[in-house]
Amino acid sequence: MNKSFSTEFVFQVFSLVIAVIIVHAVYVSVIRPNAEAELAEQQMLIEQDPDFVPDRSIFVIVKDLEQEACFILMFWAFAIMGYKAWHATRERALFDRDLLPMVEGVRILPADTREYARQLDSLNDDERGLLLPRALLGALQRFGATGNVQDVSSSTQNLVANEADRLESELSMIRYIAWAIPSIGFIGTVRGIGAALGMAHRAVDGDISGVTNSLGVAFNSTFIALLISIVVMFLVHQLQLMQERQVFETSLYIDQRLIQRLQSA
Questions:
Q1: At 263, is the secondary structure helix, strand, or coil?
Q2: Scanning 81, 138, 162, 214, which has the fewest C-beta atoms within 10 Å of its C-beta?
Q3: Closest Cα to residue 89, out of 130, 33, 49?
Q4: Inter-residue contact 99 to 136 (CB < 8 Å)
C-alpha cells in the first residue's frame, strides 16, 4: 500500500507538471496570438463602423490567466481520475476469475486454509496488492486461526469498509480541484471588475473600450470556470460510483466464493 501511495503521488506530481507545460505552450503559441489578432481586427472594424457588433471568439473568451489556470487544473484532475479509474478497472477484472477454484459442494475446513492461501500467494506482486486477493487471504488466515465463520465474516466486512473509507478519502484532492476551479474564475471576476472601475474616468470621457475589455475578463473567466467545474464534478461522481461498485462487488464475491463455503471443524 505504501508503494502504491508513493507511485500515485509521483504520478500526480508529474501529471501536474505536464499539464502546466502543455497548456501554457498552447496558450503562448495558439490562443493568445489569435486572441490579440481577433481583438485588433474587431477594434479596427468598430472604428470603421460604430454599429458593428463583434462576434464572441473562443480565443478571446479563454485568453486570460484565470482560464489558463482552470484548464491546467482540469487536465490535472482528468489525469488523477484516469489513474484511479484504471486502478479500479484492474480490481474489477479479478471478479471474472476464480481465485479459489474448487469443486462445487466442497467445504473449506480450518485445516484446508493453507492450501487455498498458497493459490493466492502464487499471484504476481501487483495482483496480490489488490483488494480482492488481500481480503481473501486475510479471511483464510483468520479462519485458519479461529475456525469461526462469523468472525471471518465480520473481519472481512471491516476490511472492505476500511477500503471504502480509504477510497473516499483519496478523492479529497479531486474534490479540492473541483472547488478551486470556480474559485479561480471568481478571482478573474474580481480582477476584471476592479480593472473596469479603475478605468471609469475614461468611460466618463466617452472611451468605454477599456471598461468593456475588463468586464469581458470578469465574465469570461467565470463562464469558463463554471463550465469546467460542471464537467469535472460529473466525472468525479462517475469515479465515485465506480469505486463504490468495486467495493460492493468485492464483498459479494468473498461472501459467495468463500464465506458460504467455510465450515467449522
A1: coil
A2: 162
A3: 130
A4: yes
Residue 157 neighbours by CB under 8 Å, 6+ apart: 251
Which pLDDT does position 36 carry in this prediction?
86
Residue type for position 259: I
* Residues, the chain: 265
53 Cβ contact partners less than 8 Å away, ≥ 6 residues apart: none
Task: Write out the three cell numbers for 37.
Answer: 489578432
- 62-89: b or e for each residue (b if 16 or more CB lie within 10 Å)? bbbebbbbbbbbbbbbbbbbeebeebbe
pTM of the model: 0.84
Q: State the first-to-last Cα distance of the chain, in angstroms, to the nearest integer.
A: 34
Helix, coil or strand: residue 262? strand
Q: At residue 262, what are phi and psi to the nearest 5 degrees?
A: -80, 145
Residues of the chain with pLDDT under 50: none
Say how far residue 58 (Cα) sits from the centre of its chain.
26
Instruction: Classify the C-alpha dihedral 97-100-102-108 as positive or negative.
Output: negative
Cβ-contact 60, 38 below 8 angstroms: yes
pLDDT, position 228: 95
In degrees, rounded to 5, the angle at the alpha carbon of residue 207 between the alpha carbons of residues 205 and 211 is: 115
The dihedral built from the CA positions of residue 200, 203, 205 and 207, taken in this order, carries a sign that is positive
Element (H, E) at 106: none
CA angle 159, 163, 165 (to 5 degrees): 115
How far is the C-alpha of 250 from the C-alpha of 244, rounded, in Å? 10
Q: Domain coordinates of the chain in residue numbers?
A: 69-261
